[in-house]
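Budget justification aside, the reviewers requested a transparent look at the raw inputs and outputs of the sequence design task funded under Objective 1. We therefore reproduce one unedited record. The lines immediately below are the C-alpha cells for a 740-residue chain.
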C-alpha cells in the first residue's frame, strides 16, 4: 500500500456531482447575509443609515454585545497589532473591509438591501508603510566581517509580487446558534478564534468544514465573516448564510507574498559563498492576519540558507502596514520568497563571476556528509543529499545539451535552475512558541476499529484537494494489512475530531500521518494483548504482520477481524486487565520540520516580436522522503508548479492609492492549461525524514516554491538581461528585449 499509486477514492463523488460544498447546505428559516464593504482605503465611519424595513447589524451592535477583537495567531515580540473587528467600529483600513451586515430571506434580496445602506465616511490619508514589527536573525557582525574581506560581492534588489488565492470555490459560512459550517482548512483554529471573540466555550460551538474546492493557504485563516455569522445567528435566532461573490473574494481573501528585498552575497574568486545579507520589507496589509507575521518573519527568514553552505547569514525583515487586504499564507508561504532571493542571487553571481550557473551551485551545495547540518540562521536539516538531486535534475533535463537547443531555436531560448528547500510538516510547537505562536502545532488522530473490522480514522487535518481520503487510508491499510475499501477517513468536523490543528504548511502527512501511524500502533499493541489471551501466549511473543497476530516461531495465529470481534463481544476476553473495544487516539508533535528539497530546471522560449513567453519544458526532481502515493504526489507537484509559473508569468495583485485594480479575472491573470508544458516530475526517496515514523516530508507546496526562480532565471538567460520583474508579462519581456 505504501508507495502505490492507488486511484483517489474521493474523485467519483466529486465527478458525479455528489460533493457537498458550503453553498449546497441550507437550513429551514435561514437568512442570507450581504455585506456592506468599505469603498475607501482608509476612512472614519461617521454614520450608518438605512431604511427601517431592513435588518441591518453594525459594528456598534457588536460592540454593545461585547464582541472582542480578532487577534492574530502569532505575536512577534514588540509587534503592533491594530484592533480588528468583524464589523468595522470607528475606522476602515482597506477597501472591502466589512462595515455592515444586511440580512434577508434570499441572497438577491440581501444584496439589493445592502445597496440601500448609506455610510457616511470621512476619508483619511493613506497609511504609508507604518512598521508593525522588525525581525532579525543571524550574526550581523560575522556577515559584516565577511563582506569586508570578500573578493567579490553581488547585489540584488527584487520584488516578490502580491498574489491572491483564487480557489474554484469562494469562501462561505453558514451558522446556526451552535454550529458554524465554514469552508476552512483549520476548523479547530476557527472555533478557537470565534469562541474567544464571542466569549463562548469551545463546547458551545461545533465547526464543520465540509468538501471544499481548494484552499491554497488563504482558507486556513480567520476571517470576520466567521465571527459575524455565529454572532448574528445567535442574536437573530435564525441560521445565517454568507457566501462570497468572486469580486468579494478579490476584496477580502488574504493575499500572499508582497516583499521588497535588497540582498547581497559575498563570495571568493572561485564563487564560494561567504556571507549573505538580506533586508526585506514585507507588506502585511491593513491588519496582522492570523499567520501573517509568522510567514513574513520567522518562516521566510529561516530558509535563507537554502541548499547552500553559506557560513554567515543575516536577515532583517520589516513588516509594514498598508491600506490593502491583509497578507497571509499562500501556497509556499514564506518559502517561495526565500528561494526566489537565493536563486536569483546565485544566477547573478554566476553571471558576474563568469561561471556556469550550474557550476556555482555545485560548488556551494551542502554535502550529504554534513548532515545533520546546522544552518547559521536557525534550522538544523536532519537529512538530504542535495548534490545527488542536483545532478539528477541536470541529467534528466539534459542541461549539458542546452546550447544545441538554443542554437536551433527560432526564438530567444533560455534555461533556468532553481534549488529549493521547504520546511514542511509545520511545526514543532516548542519552536513555534519561541517565535511567537499563540497556538500549538501538533496533530491528533483517532482510529476506531468497528466490530466487523472496518476502520474509521479521524484526523484534525482537512482534505480540500490533497487526496487525504486515499493516502491516509493507504497508511491504515498498510499498518493493519486489511482491504483498503474497509477504511474511511473523517476530517473537518470538531464534533467528530474534538481537537486538531489543520492543513497548511504541507503538514498533513508528516504530522497528521504520523499521529495516524502512532494511533494504529496503539491498536496493534492492544490487539497483541487480546491475541495473547486468545492464543494462550504471552503478549511479548505475539508478532503482527499482514493482518495476522501470530505467536512467534509457531503457526498459531489469529486474524485482525477476529481480534476486532473479540474486542466488542468480549465473551472470552481478559476483562480484568483490559478494556473492551478497539479505539485509540494519538497526538503527534514533530521534533523538527521535515525538510523537503528539490532541484527544478525550466526551459523557456520568448517570441522576440511579441514578448510572449512559453515554458517549453520543466523538470522537477524532489526529495519528499518516503512517498505514500506517487500519483497523488505528482498531482500535487503539478498543481504547485502551475501556481509558481502563474506567479512568474502572469499573476499580480495591483493596488493604486488603496484601490484594488486587479479585482476580477479579467485583470488578475491565472495561468491556463495551455500555458503549461507537460511536466517531468520525479522523486528521490533515498533520504527519508529521520524523525517521523513514516519517513515522509511534505510535497503540497514544492512546485510553488521552485517554479518562480526557475522560470525567471530561464527568462533572464533567454533575454540576456540583468534584471526582470515578476510577473514577466509579454509587455515587460518585450520592453526588456527593446532595452526599455
Ligand atoms: N503525500 C505522499 N507522500 C509524501 C508526501 C505527501 O503521498 N511523501 C501525499 C499526502 O498523503 C497528501 C498529499 O500528498 O495526500 C499532500 O500532502 P502534504 O504535502 O502533507 O500536504 P497537505 O496535505 O498538508 O496539504 C497542504 C498543501 C498546502 S500547504 C497547500 S497551500 C495546498 C496543497 O497542499 N493547497 C492545495 N495542495 C493543494 N492541492 C489542492 N488540490 N488544493 C489546494 O488548495
Amino acid at each position: 500500500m505504501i508507495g502505490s499509486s492507488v486511484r483517489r477514492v474521493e474523485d467519483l463523488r466529486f465527478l458525479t456531482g455528489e460533493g457537498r460544498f458550503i453553498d449546497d447546505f441550507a437550513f429551514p428559516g435561514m437568512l442570507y447575509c450581504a455585506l456592506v464593504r468599505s469603498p475607501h482605503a482608509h476612512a472614519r465611519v461617521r454614520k450608518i443609515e438605512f431604511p427601517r424595513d431592513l435588518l441591518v447589524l453594525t459594528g456598534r451592535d457588536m460592540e454593545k454585545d461585547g464582541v472582542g477583537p480578532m487577534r492574530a495567531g502569532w505575536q512577534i515580540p514588540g509587534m503592533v497589532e491594530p484592533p480588528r473587528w468583524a464589523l468595522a467600529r470607528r475606522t476602515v483600513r482597506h477597501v472591502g473591509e466589512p462595515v455592515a451586515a444586511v440580512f434577508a430571506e434570499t441572497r438577491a434580496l440581501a444584496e439589493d438591501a445592502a445597496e440601500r445602506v448609506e455610510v457616511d465616511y470621512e476619508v483619511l490619508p493613506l497609511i504609508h508603510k507604518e512598521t508593525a514589527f522588525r525581525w532579525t536573525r543571524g550574526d550581523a557582525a560575522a556577515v559584516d566581517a565577511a563582506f569586508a574581506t570578500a573578493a567579490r560581492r553581488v547585489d540584488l534588489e527584487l520584488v516578490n509580487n502580491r498574489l491572491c488565492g483564487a480557489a474554484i470555490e469562494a469562501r462561505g459560512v453558514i451558522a446556526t446558534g451552535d454550529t458554524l459550517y465554514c469552508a476552512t482548512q483549520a476548523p479547530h483554529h476557527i472555533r478557537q478564534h470565534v469562541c474567544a471573540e464571542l466569549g463562548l466555550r469551545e463546547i458551545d460551538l461545533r465547526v464543520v468544514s465540509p468538501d471544499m474546492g481548494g484552499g491554497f493557504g488563504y482558507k486556513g485563516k480567520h476571517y470576520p465573516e466567521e465571527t459575524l455569522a455565529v454572532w448574528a445567528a445567535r442574536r437573530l435566532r435564525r441560521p445565517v448564510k454568507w457566501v462570497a461573490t468572486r469580486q468579494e473574494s478579490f476584496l477580502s481573501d488574504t493575499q500572499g507574498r508582497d516583499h521588497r528585498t535588497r540582498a547581497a552575497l559575498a563570495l571568493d574568486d572561485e564563487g564560494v559563498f561567504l556571507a549573505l545579507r538580506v533586508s526585506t520589507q514585507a507588506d502585511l496589509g491593513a491588519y496582522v492576519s492570523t499567520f501573517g507575521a509568522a510567514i513574513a518573519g520567522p518562516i521566510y527568514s529561516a530558509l535563507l540558507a537554502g541548499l547552500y553552505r553559506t557560513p554567515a547569514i543575516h536577515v532583517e525583515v520589516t513588516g509594514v502596514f498598508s491600506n490593502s487586504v491583509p497578507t497571509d499564507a499562500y501556497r509556499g508561504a514564506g518559502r517561495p520568497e526565500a528561494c526566489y532571493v537565493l536563486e536569483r542571487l546565485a544566477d547573478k553571481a554566476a553571471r558576474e563571476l563568469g561561471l556556469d550557473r550550474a557550476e556555482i551551485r555545485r560548488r556551494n551545495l551542502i554535502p550529504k556528509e554534513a548532515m545533520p547540518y546546522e544552518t547559521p540562521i536557525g534550522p538544523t536539516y536532519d537529512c538530504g543529499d542535495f548534490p545527488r538531486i542536483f545532478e539528477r535534475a541536470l541529467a534528466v533535463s539534459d542541461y549539458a545539451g542546452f546550447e544545441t537547443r538554443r542554437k536551433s531555436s527560432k526564438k530567444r531560448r533560455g534555461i533556468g535552475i532553481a534549488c529549493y528547500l521547504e520546511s514542511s510538516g509545520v511545526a514543532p510547537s516548542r519552536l513555534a512558541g519561541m517565535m511567537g505562536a499563540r497556538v500549538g502545532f501538533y496533530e491528533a488522530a483517532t482510529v476506531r476499529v468497528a466490530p466487523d473490522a472496518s476502520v474509521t480514522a479521524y484526523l484534525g487535518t482537512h482534505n480540500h484537494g490533497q487526496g487525504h481520503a486515499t493516502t491516509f487510508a493507504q497508511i491504515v491499510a498498510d499498518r493493519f494489512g486489511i482491504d483498503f475499501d474497509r477504511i474511511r477517513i473523517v476530517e473537518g468536523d470538531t464534533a467528530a475530531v474534538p481537537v486538531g490543528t489543520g492543513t497548511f504548511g504541507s503538514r498533513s502527512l508528516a504530522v497528521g500521518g504520523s499521529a495516524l501511524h502512532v494511533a494504529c500502533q496503539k491498536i496493534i499493541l492492544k490487539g497483541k494483548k487480546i491475541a495473547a489471551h486468545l492464543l494462550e501466549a504471552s503478549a511479548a511473543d505475539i508478532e503482527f504482520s499482514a493482518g495476522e497476530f501470530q505467536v512467534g516461531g509457531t503457526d498459531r495465529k489469529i486474524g485482525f477481524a477476529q481480534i476486532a470481534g473479540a474486542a466488542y463481544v468480549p465473551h472470552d476476553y481478559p476483562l480484568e486487565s483490559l478494556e473492551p473495544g478497539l479505539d485509540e487516539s494519538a497526538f503527534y508533535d514533530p521534533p523538527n520540520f521535515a525538510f523537503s528539497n528539490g532541484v527544478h530546471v525550466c526551459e523557456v522560449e520568448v517570441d522576440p516580436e511579441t514578448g510572449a513567453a512559453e515554458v517549453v519544458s520543466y523538470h522537477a526532481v524532489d526529495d519528499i522522503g518516503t512517498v505514500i502515493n506517487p500519483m497523488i504526489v505528482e498531482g500535487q507537484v503539478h498543481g504547485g508548479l502551475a501556481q509558481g509559473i502563474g506567479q512568474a508569468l502572469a499573476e499580480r495583485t495591483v493596488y493604486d492609492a488603496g484601490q484594488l485594480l486587479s479585482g476580477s479575472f479579467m485583470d488578475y491573470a491565472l495561468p491556463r492549461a495551455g500555458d503549461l508544458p507537460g511536466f517531468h516530475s520525479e522523486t528521490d526517496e533515498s533520504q527519508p525524514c529521520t524523525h517521523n515514523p513514516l519517513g515522509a516530508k511534505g510535497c503540497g507546496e514544492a512546485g510553488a516554491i521552485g517554479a518562480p526562480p526557475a522560470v525567471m532565471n530561464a527568462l533572464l538567460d533567454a533575454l540576456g538581461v540583468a534584471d526582470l520583474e515578476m510577473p514577466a508579462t509579454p509587455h515587460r519581456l518585450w520592453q526588456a528585449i527593446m532595452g526599455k
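DSSP finds 19 helices and 32 strands in the chain. The mean pLDDT is 97. Computational costs for records of this kind are itemized in the attached budget.
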